[in-house]
Amino acid sequence: MVESARRRPSRKGSMADMPQNLLDQIKELEELFTVDQARLKQIVNHFVKELTKGLSKEGGNIPMNVTWVLGFPTGEEKGSYLALDMGGTNLRVCEVVLSEEKGEFDITQSKYRIPEELKTGGSDDMWEYIADCVQQFLEYHHEGETLSELPLGFTFSYPATQDYVDHGILQRWTKGFDIDGVEGEDVVPMLSAALAKRKLPIKIVALINDTTGTLIASAYTDTDTKIGCIFGTGVNAAYMENAGSIPKIEHYNLPPDTPVAINCEYGAFDNDHVVLPMTPYDIIIDRDSPRPGQQAFEKMTAGLYLGEIFRLVLLDLVDNKNQLIFQNQDVSKLRKPYTLDSSFLSAIEEDPFENLSETQDLFERTLDIRVNKPELELCRRLAELIGTRAARLSACGVAAICTKKNIRSCHVSADGSVFTKYPHFKERGARALREILDWAPHEDDKVTINAAEDGSGVGAALIAALTLERAKAGNLVGIKQKLC
Q1: CB atoms < 10 A from the CB of 273, how many?
Q2: Domain-embedded: residue 7
Q3: What is the pLDDT of residues 114-165, one digit of tens each?
Q4: 265 vs 249: CA distance, rounded Å
Q5: Would you call 210 a catalytic residue per the annotation?
Q6: pLDDT over 70 at 440, yes or no
Q7: pTM recorded for the entire structure
Q8: Of 210, 286, 341, 351, which residue is the catalytic one?
Q9: Helical ranges in 329-424 per DSSP H
Q10: For residue 2, pLDDT beyond 60
Q11: Cα(129)–Cα(237) distance, rounded to whole angstroms?
Q12: 449: nearest Cα among 406, 470, 420
């Protein structure tokens, strides 16, 4: 293994000994997955129209959900709050103490994995499980204490219609969930009933999306934050819109300059397939998904799908290209849908060795496939192409919000496993923003995407605090329950 100990400074000359048929195939894949500057701008132009359409009374593919979070935190918020975060993989229970120091907080938290069988089971089983986790948290961290009623911010990271900040009707499940009896219903009473059954002293005062929480939590510590994003299992963004630019809430007669947080849910961008550069593999993913025709943007950019795109390409090369790769090998494990996730691609892109020995080990360990050097190079290039396309398309959503709001410079706070763990994602997205927004070569980045504060924990607590403050001040617009 002498060769594997040599650090790989560049991949430029690594394909010199590549067979011509594989070189031709790589060229085809490059043409298929590359999104150039002109296409990026075309996507953004359509994106802006779709964002605007979502705010109209008629609506559109992008829900543009009104959250009833009216304004940013001041940094003066205080008190103890619970936060419950129901994500795509884990459930997290937090206690957040907003301190006397401006913009400071302490957080205690526990994480629980959501069992796979609950994701497609009955609703009662899911809410009972969540309530049980909350009870475990309180019993562990407040053993023997008599607790007064604790306000809770519930981070529910699925598309929900909110006529009030403390209620939310699930539009549709995403992220692989498909639980009966929840779509079209308000999820707050469901969870409240499960908590009350255990006699837990908790009041749900705000239902939030993780993206809105990311926006609020990051603005709490960085006032230049104007957009919150999630690049993870799913994709989404939130920003502040003026009430006067939201025709679908004009009957509330809010002052036109009232800031209203919008949870875009823009994973649904281009469900009509007007502008996104879909490949045959994207078409297969959509066709075979639980919800064909939905979440078009998400299926091309989110972590849930990147490994599956990669798998489908490799399988196509085996089955439909005269077994171009993995000849005379058992590829039965490769045939299992979603057997690979984005971490598989991350590991390939992070392989530091010239002979790609870590990638070779990864294929043997995960798929029982022995990959030769030319095949390793093809897999490496394919991972780069899929990862780069995801980052460049993801930048389109940010650029569209900046264009719509005429934001010249700001900080964008981003969370999610793809942003935090996928190599080069941030840099590739930044490069795409430069191309879209036409910054001069000598100019610094004017819109920068940075790691977010804990939106689903701290953000949920802050929104609970903001909601209680509003209720105490008598501003009850967008508040359903009597909170004080």
Answers
A1: 12
A2: no
A3: 999 999 989 999 999 999 999 999 999 998 888 888 999 999 978 888 889 9
A4: 18
A5: yes
A6: yes
A7: 0.87
A8: 210
A9: 342-350, 357-367, 373-405, 417-421
A10: no
A11: 28
A12: 420
Average pLDDT over every residue of 184-194? 95
Domain CATH for 355: 3.40.367.20
Residues 295 and 348 reside in one and the same domain = yes
Shared domain for 256 and 340, answered yes or no, is yes
Co-location of 240 and 131 in the same domain: no
DSSP 450: E
Which residue shows structure tokens 């609506």? 59
Catalytic residue among 172, 311, 380, 381: 172
Task: Exactly one of 85, 92, 123, 157 is catalytic; name it.
Answer: 157
Same domain, 335 and 446: yes
Nearest to 405 by CA among 249, 257, 240, 247: 240
Distances (CA, A) of 404 to 223, 240, 280: 20, 12, 31
Contact 435, 249 (CB under 8 A): no
User: Which domain range does residue 324 map to?
Assistant: 21-60+223-452
Count of domains forming the chain: 2
> Does residue 157 carry a catalytic annotation?
yes
User: If you ran DSSP here, which 8-state letter would residue 453 be given?
Assistant: P
Q: Is residue 177 part of a domain?
A: yes
Q: Please, what's the largest Cα pairwise distance for the chain? A: 73
Residues 46 and 129 in one domain: no
Lookup: tokens for 67:
């959250």
Domain shared by 355 and 308, yes or no: yes
Residue 484 confidence (pLDDT): 59
User: Cβ of 183: how many Cβ atoms within 10 Å?
Assistant: 16
The mean-pLDDT minimum among 89-103, 184-198, 449-463, 470-484 falls in 470-484
